[in-house]
TrEMBL record:
SUPFAM superfamilies in UniProt: S-adenosyl-L-methionine-dependent methyltransferases
Annotated ranges, domain Methyltransferase type: 90-188
A Pfam entry, by short name: Methyltransf_12
Top-level taxon: Bacteria
InterPro entries in alphabetical order: Methyltransf_12 (IPR013217), SAM-dependent_MTases_sf (IPR029063)
Descriptive protein name: Methyltransferase type 12 domain-containing protein
């Protein structure tokens, strides 16, 4: 390949690894700089660029990235997998390398042509680890190669011939040039959209121009991408010299096909392709939300009239210049499951056997991958071969119900009751289920038993198919119903218009369905079902998954429904406008009334203010006298607070000293108990040390000594309990002392409470003063004079009302004009209803009209809101004024009452001066007593500290003695363990020799057993040390206790390691070897020694 490209004048760019000429001209074609730069960056930064790369899968966030990065793109070539290894393949138009990657992974020698330099660089980046792929940046008509190819692909390229091929007949010229580059038995593989595809009749936009009906109406122009019907494509191919042309139909189309049906699949009377076709409609990511008709209803009619090949959305064509056998001619259809984890992706083949029967074959796409599925919940299995069952999928009944107008929840409920009875009959043949409710548990193997996997035979018998998933926990009936409806919802492209009682959200449909089936359920349980389904799908995909949210709306709209909904919406808005007009007039009347009432209140308010000012002047004079007295009182209070603060400080200091004293007492007791424990512990250790020496001489006597020791400990525990009782009595004495202290503090609190009550009495004396309101009747008479002024104001408002009426009539004229505009639009719509494309223009007009009405509606709303706000403001203002009247009245009463209270308060303050002086003398006496009590407590604390220091010194000496004794015990334990291990080894060796002696007696000695004894007796340590499976370094690192013991790892493994099921190295499992050879363990032979002797025996 390198020499060929070099001869043609191409050089390899070192940075991009793309072959190109010096005068390379890149064609003007891309999906937009932002999109292609994003895809370029994703591939460049990905460590894994394989077909099923999880990294690239995360970047599939919109249609362009899904098209260029999805593993589903390769499905279009999977039917030809067997002819690709070692084949010379020319890929024309590699794009961003999605198909190139698949061809390279299949082992083909790929030469990828791409006319855009940026895309050529991306293609090479996607195949950078494949040496069998070469990428050339060149336009196809300029690529003059003498090399012939086994396969040439035009995947999504032939439709662009008018743009990039020269000549009067670009399509014919491209096919002629392709033919000239094919080997005699080579094949051309074409994938292209069908100009007359059924989805384009339903209103889907033409893929390259984005306009509905563009291709069907033949609006293509020169130098535009152009698609063709089946007959036109056949003529082009025959004229170019391709005599054998086989048409395949990919569904939903060639870009991301789930199913591919052959011509034989459509013509075979025993095979029904309709299930694959109708259930793949929703899988088309380019399908618009609004269609002229339901594709699920139309496809069965198309198939029945044998028009599927002519109305297919896309074609997959294999064109040949000679009559050679087509790969896998017996296959009727292919189906691919690739939207899951790489290890689970599979291919399903429907093929006709030599006997004429139809067989279903399944296999994993990546069969070479080691499936290490360590999941305690998910299991995966499938039948590799199964008989084809002719019938109708149960899910088709659900589709027939919900895609027709007028469907109801009752019909859906009847379908699911039937489905549930079928499930029960399939899973409980041997163990019938008597009663079914929402929480009835079913086997986890029934998680895949959804209506999509149940086929009803022609005799009405149900049969489960494609049962590949299992859940290792039981599942409830409610969850099975949930996931069944969820997956049925996913295959519906557009629901019919239901009855008005049917909810319009997925959650609402779930709740209505469970209720219809007689099951009571809450939303939180449905949410738990949703979370369990997300968990299940994430384990299948081995990645985060996104499934339709419970709040998502049902897809119920098509164009005819949309127009009716817009018309009804316009009518509702107009009716609402009329109601808003009436509401505006009513609000304006209310505003006028509120204004009049507000003015009356404001006048009354002014009179109240004048009377209040007179009273406040009189109160101010009284306040001056009270302030003078209060200044004197505050000086007294300040002196009292200072004394009380000093007393409180002394109290806190006493409390701290008493607290420290209590802690010292507790600490001394703890130290004394610890010293006693240390003494007992030393005695116990010395006793155990003596017992260890005796145990070395005779291990059996140790059990008896231990029993006696337990008796001694129980006696000691009794002594402990008596000591604890004494300590508890001491604690009770301490508690009584604390109670006495708390009683003294309570007396102090009572004294403080008395002081606080005196302050509260003072605050009540400074409270409210009330009395007399004599001028109120006079103010009312003056208000009546103001009524005449308000009458004149009413006349002004009536004039303003007339202006408002004029404005309202103008608005009504505007609404009438809008009504006439709507009638004109409806007349236009009725005149052009025969033309399908005009529906969209009417929708646009309706949309604009709705926007205008909504603008008017918004204006009305704002006007109403302003009026309502004005009314609310008026109400609040009136309420404020009325509240202020009441406040003024109360304030006047308070001021008059305060005159009397002020005089009483002055008398009380003078009396309190004498009481304050007495209180100061008492506090000074208490202060002297506190000082004496503090000095005595500090002396006691100092004595306690000295005693604690002596106890801590003794405690340290005891601790050192204990450590030395414990170390001696550890040494003795190690020595005992060593002796026990030696004894265990001796016993095993005796057992082994006894078994050998018994074998002699029974005269069943074979040559191998003689060989084993000879080798074992010779030197088992030498055998292990020479074994390739014994790794000393690994053994010491993996078992750190061996390193600590200081034993040689080989000796440790011979004596102890094998018996403890330890492994001699990372590549030899002791446990597994003994389980596979139980006689070795019974004989007490080291497993590694046995293995090495057996191996040497076989060699010798």
């Amino acid at each position: 390949m390198i020499s060929l490209l070099s001869k043609l004048g191409y050089t390899l760019d070192f940075n991009t690894q793309v072959w190109l000429k010096a005068d390379c001209e890149s064609i003007a074609y891309n999906d937009g700089d932002e999109v292609e730069n994003r895809i370029t960056s994703a591939i460049a930064h990905a460590k894994d660029v394989s077909l099923f790369s999880p990294e690239l899968k995360k970047h599939c966030i919109d249609w362009p990235s899904l098209y260029h990065l999805s593993a589903g793109r390769a499905n279009i070539l999977r039917p030809f997998r067997d002819i690709l290894p070692d084949a010379d393949v020319l890929e024309i138009g590699s794009g961003c390398g999605a198909i190139t990657r698949y061809l390279g992974e299949c082992g083909a020698n790929v030469l990828a042509l791409e006319g855009t330099l940026r895309r050529a660089v991306v293609t090479r980046a996607r195949t950078r680890d494949l040496d069998n792929v070469a990428v050339v940046c060149e336009q196809f008509h300029k690529f003059a190669s003498s090399q012939k190819f086994d396969v040439i692909t035009l995947i999504g390229v032939l439709e662009y011939a008018n743009l990039f091929m020269p000549g009067e007949s670009p399509v014919h010229n491209m096919l002629q040039q392709v033919k000239s580059m094919l080997k005699p038995e080579g094949r051309l593989i074409i994938a292209i959209e069908n100009q007359l595809g059924l989805k384009y009749f339903a209103g889907a936009p033409e893929d390259h121009h984005g306009q509905p009906l563009y291709g069907i109406e033949g609006r293509y122009k020169e130098k535009q991408p152009t698609t063709y019907g089946r007959r036109t494509l056949k003529n082009y191919l025959h004229q170019a010299g391709f005599i054998e042309n086989h048409f395949f139909v990919p569904f939903p189309d060639y870009k991301l096909p789930l199913s591919i049906i052959t011509q034989r699949g459509f013509s075979n009377q025993e095979f029904d392709p309709g299930m694959l076709v109708t259930h793949g409609v929703r899988a088309d990511p380019q399908l618009p939300p609004h269609l002229f008709f339901s594709l699920e209803l139309v496809w069965p009619v198309v198939l029945k009239n044998e028009l599927a090949l002519d109305l297919a959305n896309s074609f997959l064509i294999v064109a040949q210049t000679s009559k050679i056998k087509l790969p896998a001619p017996e296959v009727l259809a292919y189906h691919y499951s690739t939207y899951r984890s790489k290890v689970f992706c599979k291919e399903t083949l429907f093929l006709q056997t030599k006997k004429g029967d139809i067989e279903v074959q399944c296999k994993l796409l990546e069969s070479t991958i080691f499936q290490n599925i360590e999941d305690q919940e998910l299991s995966h299995t499938f039948e590799k071969r199964a008989d084809y069952i002719k019938g109708k999928l149960l899910s088709c009944d659900f589709i027939d119900i919900v895609i027709r107008d007028g469907w109801s929840v009752e019909e859906v409920g009847s379908f699911f009751k039937k489905y549930l009875s079928i499930v029960v009959s399939l899973i409980s043949k041997n163990n019938p289920i008597k009663e079914i409710d929402i929480d009835t548990l079913l086997s986890g193997n029934s998680i895949d038993l959804t209506p999509l996997n149940i086929i009803i035979k022609e005799n009405g018998e149900p049969h489960a198919i494609d049962q590949e998933w299992g859940w290792n926990n039981s599942i409830s009936v409610g969850f099975l119903i949930f996931r069944s409806l969820l997956w049925l919802n996913n295959i519906i492209s557009c629901y019919g218009k239901p009855e008005s009682t049917v909810p319009n959200t997925l959650l609402g449909l779930f709740l209505a369905l469970y209720k219809e089936m007689g099951f009571e359920i809450r939303e939180d349980k449905i949410q738990s079902y949703y979370e369990l389904e997300v968990l299940f799908q994430s384990k299948v995909a081995q990645d985060k998954v996104v499934i339709p949210h419970l709040s998502s709306s049902l897809r119920t709209s098509n164009l005819s429904h949309l127009i009716n909904d817009y018309t009804n919406y316009i009518q509702n808005i107009e009716n609402t406008l009329i109601e808003r007009e009436h509401h505006i007039r009513n609000l304006e009347y209310v505003v006028a009334d509120k204004n009049r009432h507000t003015e009356n209140l404001e006048h009354t308010f002014e009179e109240k203010d004048h009377h209040i000012r007179n009273l406040e002047h009189m109160v101010a004079e009284k306040n001056l006298h009270i302030e003078n007295l209060e200044c004197i009182f505050e000086d007294k209070d300040h002196h009292i607070r200072n004394l009380e603060y000093l007393v409180a400080e002394k109290n806190r200091h006493i409390e701290n000293l008493e607290h420290i004293f209590g802690e010292k007492e507790n600490h001394i007791k703890n130290l004394e108990r610890m010293v006693e424990d240390k003494d007992r512990h030393i005695g116990n250790l010395e006793y155990i040390f003596g017992e260890k020496d005796n145990h070395i001489s005779n291990l059996e006597r140790m059990v008896e000594d231990k029993d006696r020791h337990i008796g001694n400990l129980e006696y000691i525990f009794g002594e402990k309990d008596n000591h604890i009782s004494n300590l508890e009595r001491m604690v009770e004495d301490k508690d009584r002392h604390i109670g006495n202290l708390e009683y003294i503090f309570g007396e102090k609190d009572n004294h403080i409470s008395n002081l606080e009550r005196m302050v509260e009495d003072k605050d009540r004396h400074i409270g409210n003063l009330e009395y007399i309101f004599g001028e109120k009747d006079n103010h009312i008479s003056r208000l009546e004079h103001k009524v005449e002024d308000k009458d004149r104001h009413i006349e002004n408002l009536e004039y303003m009302f007339a202006e408002k009426e004029s404005h309202i009539s103008n608005l009504e004229h505007m609404v009438a004009d809008k009504d006439r505009h709507v009638e004109n639009l409806e007349h236009i719509f009725a005149g052009q209803a025969s033309h399908i494309s005009s529906l969209e223009h009417i929708v646009v007009d309706k949309g604009r009209h709705i926007e205008n009405l909504e603008c008017m509606f918004a204006e009305k709303n704002r006007h109403i809101e302003n009026l309502e706000c004005l009314c609310a403001d008026k109400d609040r203002h009136i309420e404020d004024l009325e509240y202020m009247f009441a406040e003024k009245d109360r304030h006047i009463e308070n001021l008059e009452y305060m005159f009397v209270e002020k005089d009483r308060h002055i008398e009380n303050l003078e009396y309190m001066f004498v009481e304050k002086d007495r209180h100061i003398e008492n506090l000074e006496c208490m202060f002297a007593e506190k000082e004496s009590h503090i000095s005595s407590l500090e002396s006691i604390v100092a004595d306690k500290d000295k005693y604690i220091e002596r106890l801590e010194h003794r405690f340290g000496e005891k601790g050192n003695r204990i450590k030395s004794l414990e170390q001696m015990v550890v040494d003795k334990d190690k020595y005992i363990e060593h002796l026990e291990n030696i004894s265990l080894y001796k016993n095993r060796k005796i057992l082994f020799l006894e078994q050998i002696i018994n074998s002699f007696k029974k005269k069943k000695i074979v040559q191998f057993s003689l060989y084993i004894r000879k080798k074992i007796i010779r030197n088992p340590i030498k055998i292990c040390s020479k074994s390739t499976f014994f790794d000393k370094k690994w053994y010491l690192d993996y078992y750190p206790d061996v390193r600590v013991s200081g034993l040689d790892p080989v000796i440790h493994y011979i004596k102890y390691g094998a018996a403890e099921k330890r492994d001699p190295g990372p590549n030899f499992s002791t446990r597994y070897y003994l389980e596979e050879n139980p006689d070795v363990e019974k004989m007490g032979i080291n497993p590694l020694v046995h293995y090495e002797i057996q191996k040497n025996f076989l060699i010798e």
